[in-house]
């Protein structure tokens, strides 16, 4: 006969309840990975640590104490840099944004994010804030000039003039590439309008997320063009 508990009934029933609770948590993705799921990563970490220790030991025997000290400093510096870049504020300041980060931004925040991502890619950037339509202007070392706008659609509304960027100093208007950033998906008419215009590139939500993750803008514009 099952041993009784004064508080919650037979021990066997409590075990069954716990197994059922664990099963429900795993089904909902809340219980965490199983050991066999993390085992490959654990083996890889152990192998890397063993390799680093062996390399430091070999360097100590071959050269002296300088190699282990240099190796430890390099490892500590790499870990510190990795942890710093993982912090949301620091990561965003150097131009890396997660999809959730991008969804939380308003238009002004999105303009700042684009300015940071351009700087990350090596562009010289000027952010022009505005209550409803901020712009970002940028140029790189190859002489390319960008004018970035942020709109829900690329095509102008019937009661407004088509947005034309002011010419950069010493740069003809026809040599400025316009980029329209939209966190959603452009309609077919927007794509057709941009192709007719010839100097406009559309950057939709999918491309924006890739850009925020670290892909360079030049690659994304080449695909869109």
TrEMBL record:
Swiss-Prot/TrEMBL keywords: Membrane, Transmembrane, Transmembrane helix
Transmembrane segments: 38-59, 65-83
Domain of life: Bacteria
Protein known as: Restriction endonuclease
Organism: Streptomyces cinnabarinus
Lineage, highest ranks first: Bacteria, Bacillati, Actinomycetota, Actinomycetes, Kitasatosporales
């Amino acid at each position: 006969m099952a041993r009784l508990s004064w508080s919650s009934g037979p021990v066997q029933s409590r075990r069954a309840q716990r197994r059922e609770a664990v099963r429900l948590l795993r089904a909902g993705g809340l219980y965490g990975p199983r050991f066999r799921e993390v085992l490959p990563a654990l083996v890889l970490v152990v192998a890397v640590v063993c390799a680093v220790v062996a390399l430091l030991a070999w360097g100590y025997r071959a050269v002296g104490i300088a190699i282990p000290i240099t190796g430890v400093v390099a490892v500590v510096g790499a870990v510190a840099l990795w942890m710093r870049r993982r912090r949301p504020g620091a990561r965003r300041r150097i131009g890396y944004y997660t999809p959730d980060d991008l969804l939380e931004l308003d238009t002004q925040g999105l303009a700042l994010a684009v300015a940071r991502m351009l700087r990350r890619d090596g562009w010289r950037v000027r952010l022009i804030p505005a209550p409803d339509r901020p712009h970002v202007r940028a140029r790189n070392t190859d002489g390319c000039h960008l004018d970035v706008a942020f709109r829900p659609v690329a095509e102008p509304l019937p009661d407004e003039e088509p947005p034309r960027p002011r010419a950069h100093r010493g740069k003809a208007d026809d040599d400025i590439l316009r980029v329209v950033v939209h966190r959603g998906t452009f309609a077919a008419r927007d794509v057709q309008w941009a192709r007719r215009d010839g100097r406009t590139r559309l950057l939709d939500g999918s491309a924006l997320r890739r850009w925020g993750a670290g892909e360079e803008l030049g690659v994304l514009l080449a695909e869109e063009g």
